[in-house]
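Table S5 (text form). Sequence records supplied for joint modeling of the two-component complex.
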Amino acid sequence: MPLAEKYEKKVEAADLPQKTKDQLRKFLDEKELTDAQFKQILERVIAEYASTRIEACEAVGIIAAQSIGEPGTQMTMRTFHYAGVAEINVTLGLPRLIEIMDARKEPSTPTMTVYLESDYGVDRDRAREVSWQIEAAPLHEFGDITTDMENMQVQVHLNVKVCEKRKIATMEIMENAPKKIKDKRHYRDFESDIDEPRATLIFTPKDKESYQNLFQLAEHVRNVIVQGIDDIIRVVVRKEGGEYILYTEGSNLRDVFDVAGVDTTRTRTNNISEIASVLGIEAARNAIIHEAVSTLNEQGILVDVRHLMLVSDMMCMEGEVKQIGRHGIAGEKESVLSRAAFEVTVNHLLDAAVANEVDELSGVTENVIVGQPIQLGTGDVKLIAVRQQNN
Amino acid sequence: MPSPKRIGQIGFGLLSPKEIREMSVRKIIWADTYDDDGFPYPQGLMDLNLGVIDPGLRCKTCDQKASECPGHFGHIELAKPVINVGYTRLIRKLLRVTCRSCGRVLLSPEEIEKVVGTEEDQTGDLLSEKDVKKERICPHCGEQQLKINFEKPTTFSEVVVEDGKKVEHKLTPADIRSRMEKIPNEDLIPLGINPDVARPEWTILTVLPVPPVTMRPSIILENGQRSEDDLTHKLVDIIRINQRFKENQDAGAPQLIIEDLWELLQYHVTTYMDNEVAGCPPARHRSGRPLKTLSQRLKGKDGRFRGSLSGKRVNFSSRTVISPDPNLSVAQVGVPRAVANEMTIPVRVTTANLEELKGIARIGPNRPDVNAPCGANYAIRPDNRRLRLAEGNLETVADMIEPGWTVERQLRDGDVVLFNRQPSLHRMSIMAHRVKVMEGRTFRLNPAVCPPYNADFDGDEMNMHVPQTEEARAEATILISVQENILSPRFGGPIIGGIHDHVSGMFMLTHDVRWFTKEDALYLLKHTDIERLPPPGKVEDGIDYWSNKQVFSQILPAQLTTVFHASSCQNCDTCKKELCDRDAYVRIIDGNLEMGTIDKKAIGAFDGQIVNRIIRHYGMRRAAEFIDDMTKLSIRGIMLDGFSFGIDDEDLSKTEYGQIDEVLKNAALDVERRIKIYEDGQLEPMPGRTVEETLEMQIMQVLGKARDLTGQIAGRHLGLGNSAVLMAVSGARGSMLNLTQMAGCIGQQSVRGERIIRGYDDRTLPHFKKGDRGSDAHGFIQHSYKGGLNPTEFFFHAIGGREGLVDTAVRTSQSGYLQRRMINALQDLKVAYDGTVRSTGGKIIQFEYGEDGTDPTKSAFGDPVDVKGIVESILKEEV
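The corresponding structure-token record, covering 1270 residues in total, follows.
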């Protein structure tokens, strides 16, 4: 039985956030209550909502920084941990938090969580097919590679069965392999022949005298990626919540989005700068929040999202992801004194002199330095007593 | 007090040679400081015109005494110009982007506009070296440009092609200065230089300001010798070389000698500015210590900016060791008499308090005991003269006191003080407490306030500050008192609450049902403010009995209603609720604990369901009272039975030891079996892992399970009667894992999440065979702490323990730096009156704080409204 209609209307009409309304419905559902009780509850809820509003002049920035920084001492340092999937290493704990705040171009352990479209997600085999499209597979997985020292050749005998299983045409491999060795591995001193009926690919080095070159070539041939996306070293298929999900080691959002069967609305990566370049700054802002929340929660540390939102908004405000620190927000502040008090003191002062910078003394550090009250909290409020005229 | 002036803004600029000469009070020409009589040389570095540091002398410039004279600058006329090291990069840039003949920027106006933008739209960048192609021809005068080479620290040269060979032609600072002079003002603006305050030629020094002696005071050593400041030493070097240079110049010395001297002068001026320049050997003191010159004074943690300007020192503070006292309120702090006698609060004398303050002054500086009224240490006359109160003058001074005086009264019970423990990682690291003067030499605090300070009593020290003004005391009581900070802004839950013995005590008191006689019940509640006991819960043989739950209910607010699961709850699939065999289903209706055990979840710091509910429905003050009552009740609760833990509490019986041996033996066999499979090459690797990795993972898993199993065996034997189990179950301290390791088996020691592999060739220790992959050889400890470790196990345990220590050391420095960076990045943000979050300069960061404008401190663990709590308290039932 949903909430009685007369109550429902009142709940809907109340000036409350959606979350609170939903909670009200949930807790009052199937409860027998009198009108007086309902009225009392709604009044108390509205009163409490009014009392939990943030107050003006609150130093929310410092509170956010403290709330994230203080539990840092309790976090583990252990870089490697297994997050759900035993096969894939993910950086967690304090190093990961620092990595997020540093806005690194590439995380130390890039990984993706690839969700599949509904028709692929339910079927293990089809999920596996998608994973083959993603996982970087070197040539030696598709057949036998022999180094023929007599004829100075490297021969690749493709295993047709494997190719069929992996849903890739032998011809495609044979055409792609030499090209990829040249483009991606930057090795050009060879020629190649395709023997289509026998599904064999023959590589000959240009310099036929040197065995060293032959072995070098063989190494390139063995390891050239012929299927999948180069950056994604490994894919693990797991069933979670009734659907198959792919976890990857390595990340390349743009290319994974192009693979058929990938649900582009839910697929995510832990590489924030990649998200910023592919999906835009708003997505990056949400990604920072998500990554930070999950890093903290994994360590069992409770931090209100609002603090992380503020940090994330600060990082993304200028339209690109900026790090917390010397090369980002802290280094680009308007105040000379504040920058000088943070890091590279002397350089900031020297540069400020040449550019005739003026410090308006509106921030915290500047006012502490010159010894005046800071413009936050009670320091921001000015009361002027109007003396009553004596009549 | 004069009304404080507000500094509006601070502008930065370069000093021109003219300005340096104008502000100088004396030209300095003598390298010596003091003559044989210890009197400063005129025109020497310690000239009396530059200010005075010796008491008794008067400054020749301002005629003030050493304490008042701020000091005055002098100057040195340099024989030849030298480069200011701080600006070598700017000089290089200017040399490369301007013409060597006409001084204009090597770009046409159109090209400049492309980079900088038009006059209306100044959104472009500043000109940089990259915008000008190397060795191009000047668009203004057609002069062919030369490549400029820069060699650290201060050498510039032009590359000239002579007979097809590249020849470096050195540029002297004088050459560079004349080139800088040629750059027209309007060409400097696109380069980011404001010519009004910073002409580029001013980066080449022709005259050097000499800082006043007040900023480089000499100190007199014990043997009466003067020891000069590092800056003075450096200035002596500069003057000495400068004089020699001048003499040689006047004598018409050969070019080679002039160049050498010039370079030497440059070196001294360079190290005077910055003694850590790359490519320049640091100037050293006679003892070999590098000198601390200008730049070193500003830089770094202990430098002027971070050390002296951002970090202020204060008076009216004290510091001593802390110790616990559960009989204090959380809002109190026990202050030793010695501290209370020393710390004072100024009180202005008025007609209303005249007699009281006279009385205080008569008591004087020595308060005989803690219960005696406080005395005073100073009386301040209206003309700001301080009179020290001492045994002899108490009566005379007290009689002189009249309205308009100020008496510096000692601390007494009820005064507001700030209490702090470093590191101050969050705002709850400083809270305002009420003073309670006590005997002893330590600060005393209720252990319930330990969590916000992160304090313990193993020798921790804490600081106390006494606010001196009425405003400060008002802010201390209203904003930073302990009551106001029970809720953490980090997650919106209570951070102050019971710890350790409070939790075990409450658990022992409220677990299951116990009956107390009137005597016991009153003993338990005697320190609380209860006026009368409720009707007894049962009467047996004519004796009244009160249940343990009744006793606890006495400290709850009358209407409190809440239902939750205790931390001893095992999270069964379907909750048995009332029938819970662990008594973990807590139900409090209308201020009565109907069932359930009170433990960490109910009253603990960070969890504190009851505390949380009280704050939301009855306010902070009631919550603080509850915590006070709770700490007192719990301590009495634990004392009723007594509570201890000793070595024999880890004893198990023979059967358990047999079972544990069995488990460990099986595990070892299992590991061996898996190694066999691996060695036969039969092991199937996990996807994406090598065979070795797979084996390691399997072994870790088997051994981990074995250890847990021994823990379960031990846990079965040791029930709630065991203190360690009780502490683990109630959440007071420790976990079942600790007990497992004490009584069962310590388990696998690991380094970086793997078994211990490092050591000798193919083995960890010489006690094992090479290539042994067995559990013993890689750090599995099958003994318990009680049983004792064998030598190899002990060694592996030390290896594992070391990792933990290194980890902690690295973590503190890393997280400290992260926090410093975050504070610096976010410190200026505040909520504006329109609800937006703004930075300085009014930039909007968020349109509504946290997307819903909810204060995380006041939120219910993040939710804007604690709907569940409200519904529960009104319907009086679980929801």
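Note: The mean pLDDT of chain A is 84.
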